[in-house]
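FW: tagging you since you asked about this chain on Friday. Here's the raw sequence from the shared folder, copied in full. Didn't touch anything.
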Amino acid sequence: MSEGNGIRIEDVEAVTPPPKARVDVAEAPRDTFERKRDYLDGFINAKPDEIGAGEPGGEVYDGVIAALKEIYDPEIPVNIYDLGLIYGVDVSPESHVVVTMTLTTPHCPVAESMPGEIELRVGSVPGVGNAEVNLVWDPPWDPQKMSDEAKLELGML
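HL: got it, structure written out here
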């Protein structure tokens, strides 16, 4: 290697530190900062809408669901709601309830008595004016309609 292109090592006793930055604080930032209007202000301060008695979360609707969860299928140790036999619960503004449901099979031994029992139980919920049960076969019931709790109870999970 030639001497002109070699690496040179220089011994240094000390290096002068670079000058520090100067910051002049005339006013605190909080004094001059102007907060912009918060676009969520109205949303955060708004009161939630009143839940109707017949809507999910309302007293009548939740009472009907609780009553349905107390009725068990005689052949399967799971309530009819978690079993997926209830297709719909409609509550009118006058608190008349229509339950749309099915059974596991058209040849179910309780096909005649189950709708009547449901109608009596739902009709006994405080606030329910009239209860009606519609038994449908389409779409047919299948195990996929069961809740996770029911599947766990039956050892399917």
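FW: Helices lie at 29-32, 41-45, 59-68, 114-123, 148-153.
HL: agreed, and The two ends are 76 Å apart (CA to CA).
FW: great, closing this out.
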